[in-house]
Structure formats: structure tokens, C-alpha cells
């Protein structure tokens, strides 16, 4: 079991709720993935501060825990205000904190992120910070009061998979007891399996499932890959070797050439 | 047969046409005399079953294939059959590959072919998909002409619903979002659009600009006017267009052609699309009331098929009550 701020979670897949062909397909994908946590953007679905009540009730009817996020916030103030709104709307202290530094690539502003995390943690929020794979930023986030880290493995929506495996390994090595969730950049199930094999605790996805030809089928595929990666990590994998090493003994072979 | 059609948006008018053509005496009731408060008024008017397949289910493509023929037959001269051109900015060309892998019925064009087909876009895009069998119309001209056509056929239009609905053999409810209070499954999906005017751009067909987060289309209308749309926001708030949405729409138009930077913004509009959870339309019957609803972003594309289904139900000899006949399931 994975413990996130004291809540026991058995599925290691977290799913975003944007960009699906329809709410019905979103619902079926959530069921197929057996995820227990979905992220919801307060800003993305809001128009002039008002939101689609029926869309919320569809999300709530899925019976999963909601992790609201501050997607689209470009400043500390904006992110803090959005987090507080989300706490009211969803009655949860959980917040996936995003402070965007670059409008085009949606790269996190790690300076603003640390500042916003400190403010929100002091206000009783349980912060899930969306960050880069930078080790020092990770340390600062933990100092600010975060008990979970959500590093990217590639830019959001890029579907490129793990770009800097050494940085991800380094994070895992430095923070063995902190839940680490890879958020953003996953394109296919093999990417998810790869980061789970590195020992990451969970994976958060959205576009890779929502924009797949068959989102429900892809949700199932990711669930299996994430389980496989986790099981492989726990089972212990062989390290690569420079030489071929046959699994059958050479001694006793009839002909040596 | 005497039929009452409630709602004079695209669903109501197409249903009225199908019923009247088959011999029914039809009355259309809508409190809005000028149609500018219907979602249909803000539609793009693309008859694009092949492009829509990118995000919609197969049934949308199947039901939409005959739409251009229906509109051309009913309103000769209103339909332009020039296909749809799908483009992407240079850095988003992988979106074209993704779009192509989800759709069919297109030809891949290089920059020279793009320039031949759509001279004003020559040299602006290296790669495009041309969906050859698609068409478009001007929704406002089409709605107005269809209403005239119906009046000439003897259909009467009233603003207040007749109190004596018992006089009607069948009622077709096409009131869209007005049903959302009574039908918990029906929700609104907000769409914001702009109309731009510039003599510096000429286009012959709808241009879809792919973008990972914000796909947008530009549809040419008469007199160098262009409809730019449309946002898809999970909300039924009907307030004016937001600054963010306007910036995104204008950015998209500017990406299609830089001369849009100098265009006049003639109008901004907001329509609330009625949608069911699967984003598919439904024709349902309960006693002598037939509902057409949930046309979502496919009003002009799917209204003819829904109207035919509703007319079939209305004229079916089967008098037993049929609950929740779902057109798409």
C-alpha cells in the first residue's frame, strides 16, 4: 500500500480528467484503470469563476478521491487563491500545486513553487508539488512542508517518457522515504513501467490516456504496466552487463570452438 | 397528423421540415423570435463527419455522412463542398500525424499543393490534411432560409406555446439547454466564438488548426467574414467571452494567417451546447412526446439524421408507449 499524507492507496496510477472525448469515456477509463485518485483543474473548467455543476457531479459519481490542481496558475498569489477555492469546492486539504513559469512549455516556476508550497503548508494544506527533476528544488520543497514530490519525467503533454533517468535515480536515492510520483511526460505504458522500475511510488497521467485512440483500453494497459514495473522493482532486477553471459553452463559441452 | 415542435434551433427546424414533408401539419413554438439565443446561431456550420471522428465515436461519422446532401437538397446553394483543410504550426506537426492516425478520408498535401488549393495559405504551412468530401454552410443564413422555406410550406411559427397541446397528435421537444433543469443527464458545454472581418484574407474552406491544448477552426463566411471558434468549456455559464478565450482564438487566427492581426472583431458570441454524458445525441419517445437533444458540437452535422429518426417515430404505427428509445445505442 502507498501512503499519501496518511491515506492508504492501493492503485499506483493517478489519472487526470481533461481532454477526454466525453465524460462517459472518462468515467469508463477511470473504472478500467482502477485508479483511486483523479486530478481536477479548477481553472480549466471554469468560465468567469462559475463551473459546470453537472460535470462536477459526474466526477463525484465516480467514487474516487479528488486531487484538485492549480493548473494554469502563473504566480504564487494566483496559485494560493486557486488552492483555497479548491479547498472550498472539494472539501479537501489535498492540492496538486502547479506554478507555471513558461506559458508555452508549461515548465514549473520552481522558485514560485517553493514559496507557494510554504504558504499553503503553513495554512494546513497537504501539498503535492508538480516540480522538475532538480534535486535541490526537491530539498527546498520538503523543507517548505511538502511530504510528497511530483517530478516530471519530460515536459507536460510531450509524451517523450523519461528524459533524464540519472536525475530520477538521484531523487529516488536521496529521498528513499518520500512518496515520489512521476507527473507529466509519460506517453506510453513502457515509460510508466520504466519509472516504476526505478522505484517511483506512482505515476500521474492524463493526455496519454485521454487522447489515445481508445482511452479505456489505454487506461487498462497503463494499469498493467504500472503494476508490472512496481512488481519488478520489488523483485529486484539484473543489472546490465557488457558481456553475453549464457544461462546454460559451458562445461560439458561436446565441442569447444 | 398535427405536430407541435418546441424550439426553433437547428434540431427544431430540421424536425419540422421532416414532419411537414411527410404530410404533418406543423406548428413551431419558440419564445425567441430571432433565433439569436439558440446555440445553433453560434455554430461553425462545418459538415465535417471525417474530422470529427478524431474525437467523436464512429456513430457520429456514420450519422453525419448524409448531412451535406440533406442541406443541399433542402436549401440549394447554401452548401459549399470544398472539404476541410487541417494544418498545424511548425512545432506541432506531430499533431497532424496523430490526427491522421485517428481519421480517414483525407489527402496529405505538401506546401505547393496547399498553395494551389488555398492560395492565401501558400508558403505558410509545409503539411496539411485535406478532407475532401466535407462541406460547410453559414448557420445563420441556413437557419433563416430554412425558416422561410418552412413558412412557405405552411408551417406556422408562434412565440408562446399553445395552451391546447392536446390538439396535437405528437410533440417534438427540441428545446436543448432549456431541458437541463428537468434532465439531470443533460449538461452544458460552453462555446465561445468570434467573427472577424478582413479583406486581406480569402479562404474557400474551413481551416482547422491543430494544437495540443487548444484546437481551433476558422470558417469563411460571405464578404470576407470569418467565424473563429470554438472553446469547449465544461460550464453552462452564459456570460460574455473571457479575455483568455478571446486571446486564444485570436492567436489561432493569427497563426493561420498573420493578416488576421489587422481584422475587425465584428462580433463575439457564446453558445451553450446541450450534451449527454457520452456527448452523443438522443431521440427518445415517451407517449406522444418525442425529444431530440444532446446535439453537442454536432448540431448541423447530426440534426438531419435526428430529425429523420424523430419523424419515423412520430409516423410509426406502433401506438404503444416506447420509453427511452435511444438513437445511438
From TrEMBL, chain A:
It is found in: Cytoplasm. Its EC number is 2.8.1.10. One of its GO terms (molecular function) is thiazole synthase activity. One of its GO terms (biological process) is thiamine diphosphate biosynthetic process. 1-deoxy-D-xylulose 5-phosphate binds at residues 157, 184-185, 206-207. Residues 4-249 form the Thiazole synthase ThiG domain. It catalyses: [ThiS sulfur-carrier protein]-C-terminal-Gly-aminoethanethioate + 2-iminoacetate + 1-deoxy-D-xylulose 5-phosphate = [ThiS sulfur-carrier protein]-C-terminal Gly-Gly + 2-[(2R,5Z)-2-carboxy-4-methylthiazol-5(2H)-ylidene]ethyl phosphate + 2 H2O + H(+). This is Thiazole synthase. The active site is at 96 (schiff-base intermediate with dxp). It comes from the Bacteria. Belongs to the ThiG family. Its main location: cytoplasm. Gene3D superfamilies: Aldolase class I. Keywords: Cytoplasm, Schiff base, Thiamine biosynthesis, Transferase. One of its GO terms (cellular component) is cytoplasm. InterPro entries: Aldolase_TIM, Thiazole_synthase_ThiG, ThiG. The keyword rRNA-binding does not apply. Homotetramer. Forms heterodimers with either ThiH or ThiS. Catalyzes the rearrangement of 1-deoxy-D-xylulose 5-phosphate (DXP) to produce the thiazole phosphate moiety of thiamine. Sulfur is provided by the thiocarboxylate moiety of the carrier protein ThiS. In vitro, sulfur can be provided by H(2)S. Pfam families: ThiG. Pathway: Cofactor biosynthesis; thiamine diphosphate biosynthesis. It is an enzyme of class 2 (transferase).
TrEMBL record, chain B:
The lineage of its organism: Bacteria, Pseudomonadati, Pseudomonadota, Alphaproteobacteria, Hyphomicrobiales. It holds the Pfam family DAO. Its cofactor is FAD. The keyword Ribosomal protein does not apply. Residues 4-313 form the FAD dependent oxidoreductase domain. Its EC number is 1.4.3.3. Keywords: FAD, Flavoprotein, Oxidoreductase, Thiamine biosynthesis. It comes from the Bacteria. It catalyses: a D-alpha-amino acid + O2 + H2O = a 2-oxocarboxylate + H2O2 + NH4(+). This is D-amino-acid oxidase. PANTHER family: D-AMINO ACID OXIDASE, D-ASPARTATE OXIDASE. One of its GO terms (biological process) is thiamine biosynthetic process. Belongs to the DAMOX/DASOX family. GO terms for molecular function: D-amino-acid oxidase activity; FAD binding. Gene3D superfamilies: D-Amino Acid Oxidase, subunit A, domain 2 (3.30.9.10), FAD/NAD(P)-binding domain (3.50.50.60). Pathway: Cofactor biosynthesis; thiamine diphosphate biosynthesis.
Amino acid at each position: 500500500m502507498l501512503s499519501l499524507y496518511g491515506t492508504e492507496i492501493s492503485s499506483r496510477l493517478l489519472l487526470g480528467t481533461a481532454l477526454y472525448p466525453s465524460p462517459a469515456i472518462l468515467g469508463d477509463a477511470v473504472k478500467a484503470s482502477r485508479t483511486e485518485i483523479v486530478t481536477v483543474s479548477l481553472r480549466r473548467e471554469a468560465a468567469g469563476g462559475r463551473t459546470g455543476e453537472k460535470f462536477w457531479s459526474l466526477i463525484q459519481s465516480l467514487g474516487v478521491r479528488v486531487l484538485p490542481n492549480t493548473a494554469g496558475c502563473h504566480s504564487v498569489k494566483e496559485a494560493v487563491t486557486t488552492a483555497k477555492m479548491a479547498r472550498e469546492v472539494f472539501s479537501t486539504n489535498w492540492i496538486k500545486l502547479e506554478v507555471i513559469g513558461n506559458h508555452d512549455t508549461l515548465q514549473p516556476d520552481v522558485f514560485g513553487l517553493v514559496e507557494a508550497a510554504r504558504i499553503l503548508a503553513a495554512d494546513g494544506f497537504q501539498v503535492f508539488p508538480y516540480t522538475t527533476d532538480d534535486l535541490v528544488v526537491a530539498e527546498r520543497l520538503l523543507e517548505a512542508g511538502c511530504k510528497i514530490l511530483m517530478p516530471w519525467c519530460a515536459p507536460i503533454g510531450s509524451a517523450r517518457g523519461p528524459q533524464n533517468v540519472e536525475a530520477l535515480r538521484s531523487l529516488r536515492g536521496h529521498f528513499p522515504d518520500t512518496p515520489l510520483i512521476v507527473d507529466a511526460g509519460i506517453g506510453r505504458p513502457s515509460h510508466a513501467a520504466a519509472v516504476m522500475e526505478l522505484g517511483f511510488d506512482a505515476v500521474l497521467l492524463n493526455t496519454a490516456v485521454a487522447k489515445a485512440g481508445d482511452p479505456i483500453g489505454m487506461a487498462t494497459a497503463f494499469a498493467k504496466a504500472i503494476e508490472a514495473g512496481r512488481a519488478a522493482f520489488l523483485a529486484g532486477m539484473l543489472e546490465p552487463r557488457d558481456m553475453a553471459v549464457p544461462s546454460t553452463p559451458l562445461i560439458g559441452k561436446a565441442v569447444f570452438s | 397528423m398535427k405536430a407541435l415542435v418546441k424550439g426553433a434551433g437547428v434540431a427544431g427546424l430540421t424536425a419540422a421540415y421532416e414532419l411537414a414533408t411527410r404530410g404533418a401539419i406543423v406548428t413551431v413554438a419558440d419564445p425567441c423570435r430571432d433565433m439569436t439565443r439558440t446555440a445553433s446561431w453560434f455554430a461553425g456550420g462545418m459538415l465535417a463527419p471525417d474530422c470529427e471522428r478524431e474525437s467523436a465515436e464512429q456513430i457520429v461519422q456514420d450519422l453525419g455522412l448524409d448531412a451535406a446532401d440533406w442541406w443541399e437538397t433542402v436549401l440549394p446553394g447554401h452548401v459549399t463542398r470544398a472539404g476541410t483543410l487541417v494544418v498545424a504550426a511548425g512545432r506541432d506537426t506531430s499533431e497532424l500525424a496523430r490526427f491522421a492516425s485517428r481519421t480517414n478520408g483525407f489527402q496529405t498535401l505538401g506546401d505547393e499543393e496547399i498553395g494551389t488549393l488555398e492560395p492565401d495559405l501558400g508558403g505558410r504551412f509545409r503539411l496539411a490534411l485535406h478532407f475532401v468530401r466535407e462541406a460547410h454552410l453559414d448557420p445563420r443564413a441556413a437557419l433563416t432560409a430554412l425558416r422561410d422555406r418552412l413558412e412557405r410550406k405552411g408551417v406556422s411559427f408562434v412565440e408562446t406555446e399553445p395552451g391546447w397541446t392536446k390538439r396535437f397528435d405528437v410533440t417534438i421537444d427540441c428545446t436543448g439547454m432549456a431541458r437541463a433543469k428537468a434532465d439531470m443527464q443533460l449538461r452544458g458545454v460552453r462555446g465561445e466564438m468570434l467573427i472577424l472581418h478582413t479583406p486581406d484574407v480569402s479562404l474557400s474552406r474551413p481551416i482547422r488548426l491543430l494544437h495540443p491544448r487548444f484546437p481551433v477552426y476558422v470558417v469563411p463566411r460571405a464578404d470576407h467574414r470569418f467565424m473563429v471558434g470554438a472553446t469547449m468549456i465544461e460550464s453552462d455559464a452564459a456570460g460574455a467571452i473571457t479575455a483568455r478565450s478571446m486571446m486564444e482564438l485570436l492567436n489561432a487566427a493569427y497563426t493561420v494567417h498573420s493578416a488576421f492581426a489587422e481584422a475587425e472583431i465584428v462580433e463575439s458570441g457564446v453558445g451553450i451546447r446541450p450534451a449527454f454524458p457520452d456527448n452523443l445525441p438522443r431521440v427518445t419517445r415517451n407517449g406522444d412526446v418525442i425529444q431530440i437533444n444532446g446535439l453537442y458540437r454536432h448540431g448541423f452535422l447530426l440534426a438531419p439524421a435526428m430529425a429523420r429518426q424523430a419523424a419515423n417515430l412520430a409516423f410509426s404505427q406502433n401506438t404503444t408507449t416506447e420509453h427511452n428509445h435511444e438513437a445511438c445505442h
